[in-house]
Amino acid sequence: MEEEFRLVLEKAVGDERGGLAENLVKAVTPALIARENIVGKLWAIIIVEDIKKIIENSQTPGVLNALAELALPQCPPLIAQELSALDMIVQLINHCSAPGMPTHKASSERRVLISCWRLIAALSTHPITKHLLTKGLDVLARQALELRTDDEILLHVSTFCSNTASDHLELALTLCDARIPRLLARLICEVQVAAEVKEHIVVAANSFAKSCNPDFTHQEDIFLRFPDALAALASSSQSRAATEGIWALHCLVTKGGMQLARKLAHNAPSVLTALEPHAQAYAAADKTQASHLTLAQRVAKLTLDDIRQEGEASNSSSSTT
Fold first, then answer.
1. Is-contact 145 154, C-beta < 8 A?
2. First-to-last C-alpha distance (Å) of the chain
3. Where are the beta strands (DSSP E) in 149-291?
4. Whole-angstrom Cα distance, residue 162 to residue 208?
5. Known InterPro entries for this protein (predicted)?
6. pTM of the predicted structure, to 2 decimals
7. What's domain 1-12+86-311's architecture?
């Protein structure tokens, strides 16, 4: 049986009629899953002691993409096998995203990094996201959102964050601690970020809002979906979520500029309603007792002032024309 499976994999690797990932996925039948350590055998195609050689191996992205495709169906034995390889995935992400690593499209590091995050996003569709966070993927996600402008990476990272935040309140709060919502707010204002990525960012913001604020209801207006979700986060009874929601709204207004602030002033009452209590709390706060929440409340006041100022400016300009 071992020899049969080895021949199946060799044929998949050597078949030039399709991509490596496609060939490997076709080769892995339900019968093989039942009797073989599929993930271990796939890793054996590329695994060596030197991580640099794994990255330089042209077959590595194909194997990782095959693992991602296989991770999507509901197959508990296969998911357990995938988790056993999680440490190696984290090592690859750490290595490929380290400062100074090549980021051009043809680089091995970029191709492997994209495939790693694709696999993580696929794994996050299962109720195992707590295990993913224990490996430090919240920190790696933050680094990816901070440093990467690669749309494919941002897409997979946003999907991972969305799936993780929707699984449980505590997981959403862990991602809030990693400052994920404010980074999403920065990215959605970036012109060079693809529309598809921004759609996933909006979905992620809604996942945070639903987990952290039970009163949140999905906004039908496309323009309001993102700021409304951040407003719900800022209105959360969980201080960790509320603090991050405030900062995310601040980033949105700061990066979005005057035009966005004016739109929020006139069309997003939920944002004003969310910021007002924090601004009032800051006015009454003991400024000598500095805390993360007090700082966030001050940011809420500044953000609210900016929105109202732009709203008043647009009103006055409209009345004079």
1. yes
2. 82
3. none
4. 7
5. ARM-type_fold
6. 0.90
7. Alpha Horseshoe (1.25)
Q: How confident is the model at residue 305 (pLDDT cuts 50, 70, 90)?
A: very high
d(CA 55, CA 91): 11
CB 121 within 8 A of CB 158: no
CA distance 293 to 278: 9
Cα 259–chain centre separation: 27
Sequence-separated (6 or more) residues with CB below 8 Å from residue 305: 279
Domain-by-domain residue ranges, the chain? 1-12+86-311
Cβ-count burial 255-267 (b if 16+ within 10 Å, e if not): ebeeebbbbbbee
Residue 1 pLDDT > 60, yes or no? no
How far apart are the C-alpha atoms of 279 and 281, rounded to whole Å? 5
Nearest CA-CA partner of 212 in 185, 188, 186, 181:
181
* Contact in structure between 174 and 138 (CB atoms under 8 Å): yes
- What is the per-residue pLDDT for 75? 78
User: What are 195-242's pLDDT values in tens digits?
Assistant: 999 999 999 999 999 999 998 987 666 667 899 999 999 999 999 999
